Amino acid sequence: MIQIGPLRIQWYGFLLTLAIFLGFELAKRRLKAWGLDAERFETVAFWAVVFGVVGARLGYVLTSPGYFLQNPVEALYIWHGGLSFHGAVLGGALTFYYFHRKRGYPLWPYLDAATPGVALGIIAGRIGNLMNGSDTVGRLTSLPIGFTWPEWARGFPGVCPGIDDISQVYRCTELLRGPVHLTQVYGALVGLLLLPLSLYWLKRRPFYGYTFWQFLLWYSLLRSVLEEPFRLNPL
Predict the structure, then answer these.
(1) CA dist 160 to 67, 147, 169, 205, Å?
(2) In sequence order, what E strands does the chain have?
(3) pLDDT of res. 235
(4) How many CA atoms lie within 13 A of 216 on its CB side?
(5) CA-only gyration radius of the chain, Å
(6) Do residues 89 and 51 make contact, with C-beta atoms less than 8 angstroms apart?
(7) CA 92 from chain center: how many Å?
(8) What is the pLDDT of residue 158?
(9) What region does 104 belong to: left with phi over 0, alpha with psi -120 to 50, or beta?
(10) Would you say 5 and 121 are in contact if contact means Cβ atoms under 8 Å apart?
(11) What is the pLDDT, as a whole number, of residue 157?
(12) C-alpha dihedral sign at 56, 59, 63, 64
């Protein structure tokens, strides 16, 4: 967290905002190079970010219904982390599709141009998770790369739900007293691999939509190999 006087800025929100800004700039440059209207992209991309965040938070909340039914207000605390990539992509893509159907905005060129920004968002989100502490909990490990989080850095201190709600088990600090995989770093690595790949796909681009679908394919593959096997909590 960054504190400037009375103002407190969470790393998670700050880094995501920076990623969105850089993603916008990369997309506009690409669209101008293709001879497409970058100004209209700004409009649809703004709403795609809004509904992408809504979808991301909703997707996360749905993975932990027991906890958020007991603490409904916390569903709004997006600055604490807890966003689903799947929900973000769905919310953002549906927004692009809506503008395509209602206003005739190009769909696939816009989605392609926005793809590097998504990679930046993955990097920013995972680094934000790391700065939040033990957010996105890794599995226990005996390997030398295991890291034991100090009490003050645990993402969910003092929260130990019942084992009947398996989706909330990761919140129990008892599980964080041993060395765990730094899955936040693994997730950031996925984004770092996808960023140059997405820029390469944009240049190669045999057809519009190619970059977007390649990204989804390789994100799924890389995450299933580099991150998911070592994570305790979903999404």
Answers:
(1) 11, 21, 7, 49
(2) 2-4, 7-9
(3) 58
(4) 12
(5) 19
(6) no
(7) 12
(8) 45
(9) left
(10) no
(11) 44
(12) positive
Return the bridge partners of 9, or none. 2
Tell me which DSSP letter residue 209 carries: T
Q: Which residue has the tokens 């979808």?
A: 55
Which amino acid, residue 169? V
- Cα–Cα dist 133/143, whole Å: 20
**What contacts 91, CB < 8 A, 6 or more positions away?**
48, 51, 52, 53, 54, 55, 56, 58
Tokens (6 digits) for 161: 């739900």
- Segments of the chain scoring below 50 in pLDDT: 156-171
52 within 8 A of 86, measured Cβ to Cβ? no
**Angstrom distance (rounded) from CA 10 to CA 75:** 17
Q: State the Cα–Cα distance between residues 91 and 220, nearest whole angstrom.
A: 18
Stretch (H or E) spanning 5: none
All residues at 6 or more sequence positions from 77 whose CB lies less than 8 Å from its CB, including other chains:
none
CA pair distance 125, 144, nearest whole angstrom: 25
pLDDT digits (tens, 9 = 90+) for 11-20: 778 888 899 9
Closest-CA residue to 16 (of 138, 93, 129): 129
